[in-house]
Amino acid sequence: SLIQSEDPAYFSDIRFLLTELSDDVSLEELVVFSRAEMQFLNNDYATAKNVFRDFVAKYPHTALRNFAEYYLACTYYHEREYRYSIDLLGKLTDPNESGFILASHAFFRLGEAYRELNLPDSAMFAFEQARIVAPNSMVDFYTTYRLYQIHREEGRIDVAKREARRLGEIALQGRDQKLM
Questions:
Q1: Distance of alpha carbon 5 from the chain centroid
Q2: CB 3.0–4.6 Å: which of 34, 48, 96, 162 could bond 39 by disulfide?
Q3: What gap in Å lies between CA 73 and CA 127, rounded to an integer?
Q4: Rounded Cα–Cα distance for residues 122 and 115 (Å)
Q5: pLDDT digits (tens, 9 = 90+) for 35-94
């Protein structure tokens, strides 16, 4: 769900959480959410956006709301509507409200959106927050890589090298970690 969020293989952690929530929602909610998710995973972002938007309006108190808003933010991102994506993602970054996994993913995608808007300072802040929320995880690994890229692009070679070393440390520690 991080770098290539259109690839279902990268959604394993979010898929796990959604499976756990399935007992807390009605069958109708699950069907509508799954339909939108299927459209998203098939790269039909326009349809997914409409279905997720309708879902959030129809089920404002569902346990799936934060996940629907995350997917909706990702549809905006994929359609290059970065400001809308940023607005939605900003609501999902509190780990006490959204949970650590969703908050860290939201921070990562927020960093990606800022990066697309050529706002490296905002992107770096979002990536650093993702690392804080999910240290020594796959989120940490990908955000560290993005920070390395930004520092290299900005000509801060010493900082980029430090991030590159950190990538190696995370990769070594990550062998015994859960996916995130």
A1: 8
A2: 48
A3: 17
A4: 8
A5: 999 999 999 999 999 999 999 999 999 989 999 999 999 999 999 999 999 999 999 999
Q: Which residues, other chains included, contact 147 with Cβ-Cβ below 8 Å and sequence gap of 6+?
A: 124, 127, 128, 163
Length of the chain: 180
Q: Would you tell me how many other CB atoms lie within 10 Å of the CB of residue 118?
A: 8
Ramachandran quadrant class, 99 (left: phi over 0; alpha: psi -120 to 50; beta: rest) = left
Q: How far is CA 19 from CA 1, 15, 72, 107, 114, in A?
A: 16, 6, 19, 22, 31
C-beta of residue 92 within 8 angstroms of C-beta of residue 76: no
pTM of the entire predicted model: 0.82
